[in-house]
Amino acid sequence: MKITSPEFSDNGALPAKFTADGQGVNPTIDIEGIPEGAKSLVLIMDDPDAVSGNFTHWVVYDIPVETKIREDSIPGNQGINTAGELDYVSPMPPSGTHRYIFKVYAIDRKLGLPEGAKRRDVEQAMQGHVLGQAELTGLYKRSR
């Protein structure tokens, strides 16, 4: 599996449009090589450089098997992010350059969890059902 975005390259600059300094919407994610037998996708977006440790910006599960997650969309059920919300938390690093890692997983079933599941519950439900995975990293530093 491979994921890319038309808006930024892997380890390239995440455009401000997708951050708190812009429109704060999620970028388009293109997905290639989804394994046969996949019944759903999961997307988790993290900032491992957050001051308080890893910050989960977005959790989406039971995404239909498609080759594109569209900009400014809610492609499946949303889980709780680190801010305690059901939403895409747009990047807003307090200092320095942070990495924003988009991870997509192909799952051999729908997870069937209710909207608002915690990340750990999503990850537990995925165990033993991941057919493939890929990640894409965008870098962002605020200009002040």
Strand percentage: 35-45%
The geometry reads as globular
Query: Taking Cα atoms only, what radius of gyration do you get, to the nearest Å?
Result: 14 Å
The biggest beta sheet reads: 6 strands, mixed
Low-confidence sequence ranges: none
Q: What is the CA-CA span between the terminal residues?
A: 37 Å
Oligomeric organization of the protein chains: single chain
DSSP helix count?
A: 1
Q: Estimate the mean pLDDT confidence.
A: 97
Number of strands: 9
The topology string of helices and strands comes to EEEEEEEEHE
Q: In terms of structural class, how would the helical and strand content be classed?
A: mainly beta
Architecture overview:
It is a single chain. The chain starts with a strand and ends with a strand. A six-stranded mixed beta sheet has the order 2-9-8-4-5-7, covered by helices on one side. Strands 1-3-6 form a three-stranded antiparallel beta sheet, with no helix packed on it. By secondary structure, it is mainly beta. It is globular and about 45 Å long. The model has no long low-confidence stretch (mean pLDDT 97). It has one helix at 119-126; strands spanning 2-4, 12-13, 29-32, 40-47, 55-63, 68-69, 77-78, 98-107, 130-140.
